[in-house]
Every structure is written in C-alpha cells, then in structure tokens.
Amino acid sequence: QVQLTESGGGLVQTGTSLRLSCTASGIIFSNYHMDWFRQAPGKEREFVASLSATGGRTDYHPSLKARFTISRDNAKHTGYLQMDNLKPEDTAIYYCRLHLVDEYWGQGTQVTVSS
Question: Three-state SS string across 59-76, please?
Fold first, then answer.
C-alpha cells in the first residue's frame, strides 16, 4: 500500500521559514517525479514546485521561485519543500504528489502564516 506522509507545517510569523517533508512508503520513491501543491481556503489547488525523479530538473510557480526550494533524498524516500520569508498569503494546506504513469497524493499539512 502506497502512503505519502507530509509533515513540518505549523503556525509561524511573517518572515520566518519552514521546511516541509514528504515521506513515502510502499513505493520505489526514486522512480517518481515529485511535486508540491497548495490549497488556500476558498481557492483551487495550485502548483508550487516540481522535481524530477533523479533531481536533475526543477520547476517552480513563478511567484514562489525566489523563496521556495524543492529537494529530495531518495535514500530516505523523502522530499522537501524549504519555504523562506513566509507571507500570510502562503497560508494553505500543502500537499505532495508523486507521479509517473500513476500518481499518489499525501493528506496535506497545514501552514499558517500570521501577520
């Protein structure tokens, strides 16, 4: 059974940093491309960042590229999203996704940024 577990969210103040983690089990993590998405209250889920299976290619939402960094450690079956200089508009539930031919989603982790 494939399971993705996000962690690292929380309530933080504007200007601080968080690192989200996404740990996979029941899957060959290194075979899959990884993405992060987020969904703010009342809004549609939006793309945040992606990273290829080998880590050689990244892509970011243009408005987030300067503050967010996606990475992965295939040996630990874990992906990361480093978020710096957080702003209230970053408040959302953050989801990781693994995809190849099939796709898997985590349950999400809440990030709340207070002003």
Answer: EECCCCCCCEEEEEEHHH
